[in-house]
Amino acid sequence: MEDLELRRKAVAELGRELRSLMETVARTETPTEDLQELAGEVQRLEARFTGRRRERSEIPGVDVFPFGLRMYSPATGHGSAFAPPLEIEETEDGLVGRCALGVAHEGPPGYAHGGMSAMLLDELMGWACAAKGLPAMTIALDVRYQRPVPVEMPLLLRARVTGIEGRKITVSGSVVPEDDPQTILVAAEGRFVAPDLDRARSLFPGAKGYQN
Ligand SMILES: CCCCCCCCCCCC(=O)SCCNC(=O)CCNC(=O)[C@H](O)C(C)(C)COP(=O)(O)OP(=O)(O)OC[C@H]1O[C@@H](n2cnc3c(N)ncnc32)[C@H](O)[C@@H]1OP(=O)(O)O
């Protein structure tokens, strides 16, 4: 069997290079003819991915689902070009995530797209449910944008479970600058539901943890 750690390392290395490429593309003022040539080169590069293509519902072999690593998550995945990626740690008061967004994540010039903040909070708040043993899906997310989130600024995200009622979980979250944690840039309240076993099996047929 292939060494899983070696593959995860390779996935992360590729992700890092793609992320860097995305940032370069978002910032470049390279002449137009070079852009045209580069598009062809990227197309040729894509043609080199000759291995089997994973089915839609197939869990990547490098992942641990539903309680862990998601290598291609657009929020936390080290293999994702789109992910900052968010680094998560568990604390006494819930989960803390760290990342900095790039120009490729921009909404207003110089500031993060609001959808990025919402996505990162949604993900972290979902992880907060899983950390309580209840892997869950978002049913409602209320996001309040109090200050714009500068790109290239180290950020701290927080998520804390505030209530559990059967399979329904309420979670609060925030985004703050790492060097000024009193200033709330974005605040969120979310409601999550841990799907029952039958629902989870039908939603995630590729997840071994939910099968008999
Ligand atoms: C696990 C993977 C980890 C995934 C890994 C976690 C990390 C990633 C986190 C990312 C988070 C996401 O983006 S998740 C993606 C965005 N979210 C979604 O796509 C979810 C779409 N919604 C659904 O598919 C469904 O609503 C489910 C699966 C969440 C729940 O279905 P179910 O299991 O059949 O639950 P059901 O019996 O119907 O309902 C249980 C209780 O919740 C209430 N309820 C259910 N859905 C809703 C709703 N949309 N709005 C209001 N209330 C609702 C019901 O009234 C009921 O209350 P009562 O009668 O008991 O009072």
UniProtKB/TrEMBL annotation:
Q: Which GO terms describe its molecular function?
A: hydrolase activity
Keyword tags: Apoptosis, Cell membrane, Cell projection, Cytoplasm, Fatty acid metabolism, Hydrolase, Lipid metabolism, Membrane, Transit peptide
Q: Which residues form the Thioesterase domain?
A: 110-182
Q: Where, subcellularly, is it found? A: Cell projection, Ruffle membrane; Cytoplasm; Membrane
Please give the Pfam families that the UniProt record associates with this protein. 4HBT
- Provide the reaction this enzyme catalyses: tetradecanoyl-CoA + H2O = tetradecanoate + CoA + H(+); (9Z)-octadecenoyl-CoA + H2O = (9Z)-octadecenoate + CoA + H(+); (5Z,8Z,11Z,14Z)-eicosatetraenoyl-CoA + H2O = (5Z,8Z,11Z,14Z)-eicosatetraenoate + CoA + H(+); octanoyl-CoA + H2O = octanoate + CoA + H(+)
Can you supply one Gene Ontology CC term for this chain's record? cytoplasm
Task: Look up the EC number in the record and give it.
Answer: 3.1.2.2
One BP term from GO: fatty acid metabolic process
Q: Which InterPro entries match?
A: HotDog_dom_sf, THEM4/THEM5_acyl-CoA_thioest, Thioestr_dom
Q: What class of enzyme is it?
A: hydrolase
- How is this protein situated with respect to the membrane? Peripheral membrane protein
The family this protein is said to belong to? Belongs to the THEM4/THEM5 thioesterase family.
Database matches in PANTHER family? ACYL-COENZYME A THIOESTERASE THEM4
Q: What is this protein called?
A: Acyl-coenzyme A thioesterase THEM4
Provide the taxonomic classification. Bacteria, Bacillati, Actinomycetota, Actinomycetes, Glycomycetales
